[in-house]
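TL;DR need structure tokens for one chain.
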Amino acid sequence: TAENVSAMVVVVEPGQRSLAVAQKIRSLARDIGQERTLILGNKVRSAAEETLIRTFFPPEDILGFLPFDEEVRTADLQGFPPYEASASFRKRIAEVVKQLNMIGNKILTD
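>> reply
TL;DR here they are.
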């Protein structure tokens, strides 16, 4: 249930439909009592796409951004774990996990 969740992560791609769905998910989350939703931009190819995502959400709710990675796409198509396919992807995921841990610790101490 929502009361046992510190925050919800919404993964969003840089496109109008994805952004609209993310906003709807945030609204639905609030309806069930989940006040904290974090945005993770995915498959971001440019600074303009990152900026687009940033314009839709408050800065404090942006968890981070994962760039589009051809190695990840190829691994997925071949049935391999994307995490194992790309060292740069692993590094970015580690940064997101670190950010989540920092946010989690802050939530617990507030």
